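Page 47, continued from p. 46.
Same chain as before, 67 aa.
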Amino acid sequence: MAIPKHQFVVDDSGEKKAVILDITEYRKLIEEAEELEAIRAYDAAKAAGDEAVPFEQAINEIERDRQ
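Result:
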């Protein structure tokens, strides 16, 4: 018998309220969401047309602004 990859939690009227995922599927979704977030950030940075800054300089500026 096959085990479903996800199950739904329903309320008393049968309306779906939540989902239970296989942990492997959950981790894959999280990884893909993080990758999509990085792609969107990259696209936004490219569209902004700002000047590129070396990584070390960016880290130094971020750390300086935190203090």
